[in-house]
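I have been asked to look over a protein record a colleague put together. This is what I was given:
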Amino acid sequence: MELHVRYEGDDDPKKCSARKLARFDLATLHRSARATPPGIVLDPHAETALSPADGDRAVHGAAAERLVALDCSWETADAEAFRIDGPHRALPFLVAGNPVSYGTPFRLNTVEAFAGALCILGHREHAETILSKFRWGHTFLELNEEPLARYADCVDSTEVVSIQSEYLDAGT
């Protein structure tokens, strides 16, 4: 599965997981929305949760072979910034394992978003490969082992949201 990043460049370059993925030829950076190929867009503002059904090429065509993320500061991650072609999907409840946002739900960096999506879509080994470039990468998978396995076993977005609700209800 191809990984593409609409790169804003407004984060600290030394901590930017998207830039590191690109240095290892694991993702392609794009400076404009027009240059970014269509794919499944990981969008926290999307109304539909990512599910294994999104990997169905018969439904999504070539877009099902690409994941697209927006790499920007969380302060500028408004809905307008996500104007990228393709079906937009929100990641369900996952907890950050990176040192900057460790333990914070829904506050993933770019590599964590890709890894979570890859696991849900049935590409666990690819997720492990991209996370292996980060000292803390294994932590993301350890923290989210159970929810990722449960989301990957879902049929559609409705089931993913139902499982997510269990985690959200448990936290209140």
Q: What stands out?
A: The helical segments are 17-23, 57-60, 110-120, 124-131, 137-143, 145-152, 157-170. The first helix runs from residue 17 to 23. The chain has a mean pLDDT of 89. Residues 2-170 form one domain.
